[in-house]
Amino acid sequence: MNRHEIHILQQMSGYPAVTLTLPVHRTSPENQQDPIRVKNLVEQAANRLLTEFGKREIAPLLTRLEKLVEGIDYRYTLDGLALFANRDFARAVHLPFTLKEGVHIDETFRTRDLIFAMNRTPRYWTLVLSEKPTRLYEATRGDLLEIQEDGFPITHTGPGGEQPLPGGFGIKKSAYRDEYHRKFFRQVDATLKSFMADDPLPLVVVGVNRYLSFFNEVTDHKSAVLATLQGSHDKTAAHELGQLVWPLMKEALAGQRQQVLDELDKAVGERKFVSTIGEAWRMANDGRGSLLLVEEDYHFPGRVDESGRHLIPAEDVTSPDVLDDAVDELIETVLSKQGRVAFVGNGQLEAHQRIALVLRY
Question: Which residues fall within 8 angstroms of residue 360, CB to CB, at 6 or more apart?
Fold first, then answer.
């Protein structure tokens, strides 16, 4: 699941919206109990709904939820499972990170746990260049999930692809072929743009040298490309491809950490930074955050004052007005205002009280 899909879920409203979340297992025998646990969560949700609604009134939602559960193939689950259902919509999402078990019924779907896990897990896009077709994968560590919507996968249908190249005396077919390939990869890059805008993750590009060269010529996303994998992988299974690209991205992300620390050092010299979560919260909400650096295990329960600009430490974390983790909320704020977020090792931001924000001005 990427931020684009989460935004779609967040836009849906209307009571009751049911969200079921739980950790699941990839292999047997551990996964044999997963169907029972899902069934128990569905029963909990049904019992809660039936205390508020009549059977006939809530029947469409329960039927939709039951059909959703029937379609789950437990042989191919990952580490977490989230089910979303209302009267008009149902969706099961398999996730490569664990989720807390719970039943949530509200005006909107509960996406908070998903966002938190996404923020703390290495994620990236993998683009596999090919004529038939170019594919985009959402990647979490070595797990790849193919995107099959909003234009992907994309097939080269023009001359040099599914159509023949122009012929005749004096026609230089190779020049035509190259130009049509450039045009095709411009189309790929344009289609990629909306995904990068909604979820600006690092990018791995895969393909033969010729395609990599064409894409590099035309792309507007050069700064996002952290690694490339050379070779033809049109028919490489997602699992196998993940084992090839994750080591490349892992190494690239390690190098990127040093780059962002260098960027922070420069900002310190120019006095274009703030330290502590309180200052970072205020500047981020003012839209001044360019790059947020956070230590990996830093969490901060907090309460926001009436202005929304000041963050106060929370002593009673069970209070309903307390943010479970203000760091997570801060991350979302920076990203929503087109800023960047980078995690660094514990102890690397000790001088900044574990968090720092590089400012735009």
Answer: 272, 287, 288, 289, 290
Sequence-distant (≥ 6) Cβ neighbours of residue 298 within 8 angstroms: 327, 346, 354, 355
Q: What is the pLDDT of residues 165-181, one digit of tens each?
A: 666 555 566 767 788 89
Q: Which amino acid type is present at position 70?
A: E
Q: In the predicted model, is pLDDT for residue 331 greater than 70?
A: yes
Strand boundaries in 51-142, DSSP class E: 80-85, 90-95, 102-106, 123-128, 135-140
Do 220 and 163 share a structural domain?
yes
Tell me, yes or no, whether 179 and 97 share the same domain. no
Q: Per the domain annotation, does 259 fall within a domain?
A: no
* Count of domains forming the chain: 3
Task: Look over the chain and give the mean of its residue pLDDT values, rounded to a whole number.
Answer: 92
Task: Tell me the CB-side half-sphere exposure of residue 9, using CA atoms within 13 A.
Answer: 24
Kind of pairing, strands 80-85 and 17-23?
antiparallel
Q: What is the pLDDT of residue 172?
A: 63
Q: 161 and 207 share a domain?
A: yes
Q: Can you tell me the mean pLDDT for 289-295?
A: 97
Query: How far apart (Å, rounded) are the C-alpha atoms in residues 83 and 92?
Result: 5
* Residue 260, in any domain of the structure: no
Judgement on whether residues 95 and 172 belong to the same structural domain of the protein: no
Domain that holds residue 72: 3-119
CA 345 to centroid of chain Cα atoms: 21
* 89 inside domain: yes
pLDDT of residue 165: 67
Whole-angstrom Cα distance, residue 142 to residue 343?
19
Within a domain: 48:
yes
The answer on 246 and 129 residing in a single domain is yes
Asked if 241 and 306 sit in the same domain, the reply is: no
**The pLDDT of residue 233:** 97
- The band of 198, judged by pLDDT with boundaries at 50, 70 and 90, is confident
Between CA 205 and CA 253, with CA 224 as vertex, the angle to 5 degrees is 85
Residue type, position 253, single letter: L
User: Strand ranges (DSSP E) for the chain?
Assistant: 17-23, 80-85, 90-95, 102-106, 123-128, 135-140, 143-146, 203-207, 225-230, 273-275, 289-295, 302-304, 311-313, 340-344, 355-359
222's tokens: 């050069």
